Amino acid sequence: MNEAMLKKKVKSFNTWDEWHEFEESYFHISSWKESSCEQLDKDLEKEDIIVSGVRWHSFHISYDISTEIYDLHEELSYVAYEAIEGQLEEGNDFIYDKKCNFCRVWTSEKTKQLCDFCGRKLKLMS
What we know:
The longest helix is centred in the middle third of the chain and has 19 residues, at about 65-85. Helix 1 (about 5-10) packs parallel to helix 4 and helix 2 (about 15-25) packs antiparallel against helix 4. About 40% of the residues lie in helices and about 15% in strands. The two termini are about 25 Å apart. The radius of gyration is 16 Å and the shape is globular. It is of the alpha+beta class. The chain has one domain (about 5-125).
């Protein structure tokens, strides 16, 4: 299934139970292994980087899965939230910063839309 079809399916959900069933059947989330302590230390040891006046911090992905799967899961979880709870908007008390899962960096700069390192659209961090 392509991403557009997955989003369409997730948009039809009315309950968190539907999302959790999908999460398990599509992503097999219960089998995800946690990242090692060594990887955690490596990710968090990285120094902040300033690019064009924007401070970027590193972050750690908690599971030992591909970045593509992690990113897709997160994108679909936002779609599920909007379908079940309502619009997810910046300015919402649960939204703090923006991140790039592929570069594993985040910033508090609210005006940033694209990652300075890879050019991908930034995701909201919650």
